[in-house]
Amino acid sequence: MSTITKAVDVDVPLPVAYNQWTQFEDFPHFMEGVEQVQQLGPTRTHWRTKIAGATREFDAEITEQHPDERIAWHSVEGPRQAGVVTFHRIDPSHTRVTLQMDIEPEGAVEKIGDALNVVDRRIQGDMNRFKEFIESREIPTGGWRGDVDRPTP
């Protein structure tokens, strides 16, 4: 499993950055290879991606969410992955968004791409496009501010 961590500073207040990130249906606007994200419930999403010509679908579950702080998730079927995005106030009008992803490449093509840092570059590109997306709007397209506590073992 590969762990990738990327960050970007956005020129919007922390609540604006956080609220936009909770709008999963907008991810195709700035995430390469993401064709569609459907919100199935407060903590479950369905993803359709297309990478290297291969279409994949999977569900993900939010395992922890605290407004203006963090959102953590993991896939529940399909490609194995998990991640956490955190939001850090730089000053009243600037926010650092940090994304950490744990990805298990499947098949030869994904393993080669992982070895060549293709996923690493793609995630940095996604973060840069998120910056452009939110800064061009200055207000989020919506926001969900519910709390999801980490499950106790």
TrEMBL record:
PANTHER family: POLYKETIDE CYCLASE/DEHYDRASE AND LIPID TRANSPORT SUPERFAMILY PROTEIN, POLYKETIDE CYCLASE_DEHYDRASE AND LIPID TRANSPORT SUPERFAMILY PROTEIN
Protein name as it appears in the record: Polyketide cyclase/dehydrase/lipid transport protein
Coenzyme Q-binding protein COQ10 START domain ranges (all copies): 10-130
Organism listed in the record: Allonocardiopsis opalescens
Alphabetized Gene3D superfamilies for the sequence: 3.30.530.20
SUPFAM superfamilies per the UniProt record, alphabetical: Bet v1-like (SSF55961)
